[in-house]
Design brief:
Layout lengths: L30 E5 L3 H8 L4 E9 L2 E10 L2 E7 L4 H13 L4 E10 L8 E10 L12 E3 L3 H12 L6 E7 L7 H10 L1 E5 L2 H11 L2 E11 L16 H14 L1
Parallel strand pairs: 1-4, 1-5, 5-10, 6-8, 8-9
Antiparallel strand pairs: 2-3, 3-4, 5-9, 6-7, 6-10
C-alpha cells in the first residue's frame, strides 16, 4: 500500500509559485516580531514607538500591514500573524523571502496540564499534528525547536524578569477536534499545551535556514477533559507579551 501523499516529502528548494513571485520592492529588517495578537493590542503597542508601514501582504481576505518599528537603536519588522498553520506559514514564508532572518513569534495556547492563565511558556519541541510542516520537513512525529537563537531568547527573557519554562507543545489543525483521547495521548507524550502554528513555522524556518523561536502564553484550559474552560482566552497577556518580545529583539 502506498504511503499517504502528505508523507512524500519533496526537498526541492524551488516551487512553481515562489513566495516573492510578485517581485515587490520590499526589503524588511532582519528581525521580525510575528504576533498572534489582537488589533487593539497591536494599536496600543504602535503608539509607544516610532513606526512606519513598509509593506502589505494582500489576499482575498484583506491586507496585512508590515511595520518597521524603532526600538531604541534597533529597527525591527512587526506584523500581525494569521491563525492556523497554513495561513501563518504562508505569510511567514513571504516575509522571509523579503529579508526577514530572525523571527520571534508570540501567541496564545490552550493548557492541557494544570497551568494558570497568562503564564509564559517556551516550546522546545512541537508535535506535528498538522499538515503544513510536512511540506517543509521530512515526516516525523515531532520537530525540535532548540537552537542558539532560542537559547539567546531564553537568556534575555530571564534577564527581563520572566521565569523560563521550557515545554513541548501540540500543534493541531483541528481546533474543534481536540478530543479527550487526543488530549490524554499528547499529554502522556509530554505536551503541556496546544496551539495551531508552532510546528509548521518551525519547519518553514528550518527549511529556509533562518532563526526562529516562539513564546507562548496560556489562554483557555483543556486540562479537565470533562469540562473546557474558556478562562479569559489569555487576553490579559497580549500587551505584556508584545513588550517582552520587543525587549528581547532590541537586545538580541
Amino acid at each position: 500500500m502506498d504511503k499517504p501523499f502528505l508523507l512524500d516529502f519533496d526537498a526541492s528548494p524551488n516551487a512553481v509559485l515562489e513566495p516573492d513571485h510578485e517581485e515587490l520592492h520590499y526589503h524588511f529588517p532582519d528581525k521580525l516580531l510575528f504576533a498572534f495578537i489582537t488589533p487593539e493590542a497591536i494599536a496600543a503597542f504602535l503608539k509607544k514607538y516610532p513606526y512606519c508601514e513598509i509593506g502589505v501582504f494582500e489576499c482575498f481576505e484583506g491586507k496585512t500591514k508590515v511595520y518597521e518599528v524603532q526600538l531604541g537603536q534597533e529597527k525591527i519588522a512587526f506584523c500581525q500573524a494569521k491563525i492556523g498553520a497554513a495561513a501563518a506559514t504562508q505569510l511567514l514564508d513571504w516575509l522571509i523571502s523579503y529579508g526577514v532572518k530572525q523571527i520571534l513569534a508570540i501567541g496564545s495556547a490552550g493548557a492541557i496540564t494544570a497551568i494558570p492563565e497568562n503564564y509564559f511558556l517556551v516550546p522546545t519541541k512541537a508535535i506535528r499534528d498538522e499538515g503544513t510542516s510536512f511540506h517543509y520537513a521530512l515526516p516525523a512525529d515531532f520537530i525540535d525547536l532548540r537552537s542558539n537563537f532560542l537559547t539567546k531568547v531564553e537568556h534575555l527573557m530571564a534577564e527581563t524578569g520572566f521565569k523560563v519554562k521550557e515545554i513541548m507543545t501540540w500543534t493541531t489543525d483541528g481546533f474543534f477536534r481536540e478530543t479527550a483521547n487526543k488530549v490524554k495521548k499528547f499529554r502522556k507524550l509530554g505536551a503541556s499545551c496546544v496551539e495551531m502554528e508552532c510546528a509548521a513555522m518551525a519547519a518553514c524556518t528550518q527549511f529556509r535556514q533562518v532563526e526562529f523561536a516562539q513564546i507562548l502564553f496560556t489562554a483557555d484550559s483543556l486540562s479537565d477533559i470533562e469540562q473546557h474552560e474558556d478562562r479569559g482566552w489569555g487576553m490579559g497577556a497580549h500587551e505584556q507579551a508584545l513588550e517582552l518580545a520587543a525587549a528581547i529583539l532590541d537586545k538580541i
